Amino acid sequence: MLDTIISVAWALVFALAGGTAGAFLLMWLSARIPAVFERITPDLDEGKEIVRGNRAVGDYFGRIVSAAILGVSIIIAAAVLGGLLAGLR
């Protein structure tokens, strides 16, 4: 019984540590991904084009950035799940 409680406690520690690190990484990468995309397209000012009403640029920029953020979120979720499974073993 004591081994089970210890395993659950370690799983909780891993989940909290992984969740905290994941939240920090997600916030940091969410701020960096648009800057990387703007470096890839140096001749196009996405912010200016979106303000001017260019829907194509806005849609494309939004989809690329949101897909990248979603991908990072999936990777972080897999890492947290791995920590949970490691704690429960």
Account of the protein in words:
- There is one protein chain.
- The chain is mainly α and 89 residues long.
- It has one domain.
- Helices cover 89% and strands 0% of the residues.
- The chain contains 3 helices and no strands.
- The longest helix is centred in the first third of the chain and has 39 residues, at 2-40.
- The protein is rod-shaped, with a radius of gyration of 19 Å.
- The chain starts with a helix and ends with a helix.
- 4% of the residues are buried.
- The model has no long low-confidence stretch (mean pLDDT 85).
Helix/strand order, N-terminal first: HHH
Shape: rod-shaped
What amount of the residues lies in strands? Answer: under 5%
Largest sheet: none
Mean pLDDT: 85
- Helical amount: over 70%
Q: What count of helical segments does DSSP give? A: 3
Total number of beta strands: 0
> Unreliable runs, pLDDT <50, ≥5 residues?
none
Determine Rg (CA atoms, Å).
19 Å
Structural class: mainly alpha
**Count of domain modules:** 1
- N-end to C-end Cα span: 14 Å
